[in-house]
Fold this protein.
Amino acid sequence: MSSRIWALSRYFRLLVPYWDKSLLSLFCVGIVVVFGLASPLITKVLIDHVYPGRDLFLLTFLVLLGIVIFIFSTFFSNVSSYLDTYIHQTMAIDLRKKFFAKLLRLPLRFHQANQVGDMMVRVTDDINVIVENVAELIPVLVKTLFQLAALLVICLMIDWNLT
């Protein structure tokens, strides 16, 4: 268990140089989650108030609100995706630079004992696996936790007994 925590802390240390972009990306993800949860509330208002009362003004307002929410949600989703891609690519470049610098410092005996193909696999595939775990898995985990918390709050607001 402690080795997993140690590995996770090492992953988070890789994100430290990109903390500002990571926080901005998570903020954008939070906004997208909140906007995504507005759709069930709009549907609730439609079913409970618009259809029985045949309220055309409220229907128009909700449709326009849905369009605005869709536009803003798409914008923030694209910003988050751009930042995640930037972090992913920059982290991969930085890790490859560090790995290559380490290879250059190793003694000649090491290079004679190891094949070039093995080192190339480490530079490409292994670093890609690390970067994918750090830059993609962690934001998805945080987004899922945001969604779970927001859904729980909305369910509690609608009917706490049923929740």
